[in-house]
Amino acid sequence: MSLRHALSVSALALAFAQLAYVPAHAQDVARTEQGNRVSENVPAISPELLERLNRYQNTRGAGFAGWTHDGCVLIGTRFAETTQAHRVCQPLGMREQLTFYPEPVNRLTAAPGGLNGFVFGKDVGGNEFWQLHWFDLASRQVSLLTDGKSRNDGPLFSHDGKQLAYSSTVRNGKDTDVWVMDFATRKPRAVVTEGGSWDAADFSPDGKQLLVSKFVSASETYPGLVDLQTGKLEMFPVDGGKAAISDFRFAKDGRAVYFVSDEPIDGKAQEFTSLRRHDLSNHKMQVLSADIPWDVGGVSLSQDGKHLLFVSNEDGISKLHVLSLPDHKPVKLPELPIGVIGGVDFSPDGKRIAVSINTATSPSDVYVIDLGSRQLARWTRSEVGGLDSSQFVTPTLVRYPTFDQLDGKPRTIPAFYYKPANVPAGKKLPVVIQIHGGPEGQAQPTFNATAQFLANELGVAVLVPNVRGSSGYGRTYLGLDNAEKREDSVKDIGSLLDWIAKQPELDAQRVGVHGGSYGGYMVLASLMHYSDRIRAGVDIVGISDFTTFLNNTEAYRRDLRRAEYGDERVPEMKAVFDRISPLKNAGKIRSPLFVAQGKNDPRVPYTEAEQIVKAVRGNGQPVWFLMFNDEGHGFQKKANADYFSAATMEFWRQHLIGK
Questions:
Q1: Which of 385, 529, 392 has the alpha carbon at shortest distance from 448?
Q2: Given this model, what pLDDT does residue 257 score?
């Protein structure tokens, strides 16, 4: 969870002064309810800390979401409480805000062809049951496209703008089907109802066919093609029977498809995904990124059919590649800032590329590349709270040995290390380990206001590891924590504690762990195994017991999670879950704990937080608890995110750093 934005110090001080304490059922637990915020044992945050934190919380970024028909870029950014849609029409031009909702908007999708507008998604209180809406740029009117109840995602226009495909749970609330809407009449029809989780990938140039895929897990996807006139679904063969396949795109002439896959090549298994082209007439396959030994993705083709772009993920750093068509020769690009690429796409005329780039020392901003002149122009410059960004810490990539071996040598785990500057000789720094979620996610060197504040203001070193099970390091690495191997990723944290103890500048007696979602489980599991070596932990929307989690997570995602974690209905797997459950081992957690949760979380239900708080407190351990009734899987509203960030820093000051 990154630090973002802030209320003024005076407003927060006034809010704290107005808190009314209500006795909770648990002994010696003070429950505070103010608006949508519920907290237990969270003390007042010192005004001095709030003042220092304020500017870090007022950083914000701008993410590219698409090109409008008039050559402007559509972006998502925040100027009040939540991220909203904005339009920018020239380099460093005015950001015109288009949507004004108390809830954040997302899934921004600019319409092609003669349509003048965009589709966006919006949920209620973070429940992730997104409803798709149409924003007409000419009239500035908004209309609801979906039923107002189901979960809708992945809006995708046909190339002429006459059809809109999207995925929805409207049929039975459990399966995610693919629907296609005639955009003139706004009448939708289901085109894939096979069961499971399906998405639309691309329309054929003539709009008569639709590429779709069934997602099972991060390493298992099944692609297919729907004839929109007959309704026939034809599944493509998957070499090796099982593979990670994504980014299906039709060639301009419709005679070939481009896609990303880790299927075997010439019978040889592949660790990483590569960009491929499949000729539909002769079934000839070309590998277009064979020289890149990393995962690729983010494929897009220009509407004029002259260029193709894709992005490689090289040890956490993004690199943009452009190929000319049909010869697939590399196109020289201007030098881009070193960082992580978010949204990227060609302009409607195919002559420019807009790309959002996030670096370790600056939030996301949008840049535009002119392919003819190879010139780079910056279109947005987001705020960093008035801070001097040259003083931000740039993390270094380190690799530490873990408990097992690879090719006869100790396996190493990558981690990004934020080290405070100007550390006096002989001074040992407290450490916070930030563990990403997923578990198939990947920590990358993006702008991290939390890490910057800890390093620059509190003198805390931050380590962000990519333990086994993380994406970006190959198929084998991704599967090293599956099912009964779940705790091997926890052992990687134990090995990081060993590494910390060997670093002369780090204080192995003052180490904290911090993580959200699956990273929250990792926090609890690390405290379960290493409470004697970890001073304190912050668990955000974390899993506390895999069996209760799988029983209570929303129906549409239950089987997806079973594919990763294991099936609790199988007695052998249930026994593994019981053995590794932080809830069932709460007596082993002997360090101060802070648990934060969104009441409307559809992924990790709030009951996961409540039960671990009760269990750890039952063993006499101190626990801070914070819940927002208007949030889901994380905190998207500015005031909520600010309060949580401030409370976290107060927790570290009291339980990690010392007065």
A1: 392
A2: 95
Which pLDDT score, from 0 to 100, does residue 8 have?
A: 32
User: Quick check: helix, strand or coil at residue 217?
Assistant: strand
Check the CA dihedral 58-107-262-347 and report its sign.
negative
Whether 657 contacts 458, CB under 8 Å:
yes
> Is residue 570 helix, strand or coil?
coil
Q: What is the pLDDT of residue 385?
A: 87
Please tell me the predicted confidence (pLDDT) of residue 99.
97
Contact 489, 481 (CB under 8 A): yes
Using 70 as the pLDDT threshold, list the residues of the chain that sit under it: 1-27, 659
Q: How much is the pTM?
A: 0.91
Q: Of 639, 640, 636, which Cα lies nearest the Cα of 104?
A: 636
| Helix-strand-coil split of the chain, %, nearest 5 | 20, 35, 45
d(CA 593, CA 652): 10
pLDDT confidence of residue 659: 56
DSSP lists the bridge partners of residue 310 as: 321
User: Per CATH, which fold does 9-58+387-657 belong to?
Assistant: Rossmann fold (3.40.50)
Number of neighbours of residue 38 by Cβ within 10 angstroms: 19
| Cβ neighbours of residue 249 closer than 8 Å, sequence gap 6 or more | 201, 202, 211, 257, 258, 259, 299, 300, 301
200: helix, coil or strand? strand
Give the pLDDT score at 363. 93
Taken in order 130, 438, 503, 412, the sign of the CA dihedral is negative
pLDDT at 218: 86
The amino acid that residue 563 corresponds to is A
Which residues in 600-614 are b (16+ Cβ under 10 Å) and which e? bbbbbbbbbbebbbb
Are 88 and 380 within 8 A, CB to CB?
yes
Residue 641, classed as helix, strand or coil, is helix
CA separation for the pair 355, 5 (Å, rounded): 24
| pLDDT for position 16 | 28
